[in-house]
Design goal:
antioxidant; 4 helices; redox-active center; about 190 residues; Glutaredoxin; about 25% helix; alpha+beta; about 25% strand; seven-stranded mixed sheet; oxidoreductase
Length: about 190
């Protein structure tokens, strides 16, 4: 990875690269557990990286994802939130904040920074993750990514639309989706 000079690093993963074989501790289904990403082969995987628990923008994002989580699972996807916090901090946040109490997807703990570094979200200047989203297809190939400044939250509805478009393209060989495509819209036959 290349340091961009502002404490942030250039993105490590590229489109169509495979998901690294990684494991992480997590807070999931009211338990501290170990998640092996290879256990999710054959599913769409959505990762939402965020800087830290007990902050300002992050709980709004995780709550919005919680409200749409069923929509993601109906598309055959599993969602993972990722921060540098321990699974015990995730549990404390889950138990104390009514917005985070709605979260049913695995909250991955990246205390070593291994996940952030593998995905290219690690911010050298503060040791946290950049706010970022990644979508991997059922073969484990990266199909969409977004990394942006921490000052504003991601649009989870747009992330869902991207997943729906990616799934449509995969299931309808030879067709592509125009800008703003939503399920039911016309696709393009190149």
């Amino acid at each position: 990875m290349v340091n961009k000079g502002n404490g942030q690093q250039a993105h490590g993963l590229k489109i169509n690269e495979r998901l690294p074989a990684l494991e992480a501790d997590a807070y999931y289904k009211n338990n501290i557990t170990r998640i092996n990403l290879s256990d999710y082969q054959g599913k769409w995987l959505v990762f939402i990286f965020y800087p830290a628990d007990f902050t300002f923008v992050c709980p709004t994002e995780l709550e919005e994802m919680a409200s749409l989580y069923k929509n993601f699972t109906e598309q055959g996807a599993e969602v993972f939130s990722v921060s540098r916090d321990t699974p015990y901090v995730h549990k404390a946040w889950h138990d104390s904040d009514p917005r985070i109490n709605k979260v049913e997807y695995p909250m991955l703990s990246d205390t070593t920074g291994e996940l952030c570094k593998a995905f290219g979200t690690y911010n050298e200047s503060n040791g946290l993750s950049q706010r970022a989203s990644f979508i991997f297809d059922p073969d484990g190939n990266l199909k969409a990514m977004e990394i942006h400044d921490d000052g504003f939250g991601r649009n989870t509805r747009e992330l869902l639309r991207e997943l729906e478009a990616l799934k449509f393209v995969r299931e309808n060989k030879g067709k592509v989706c125009p800008a703003g495509w939503k399920p039911g819209d016309e696709a393009i036959q190149p």
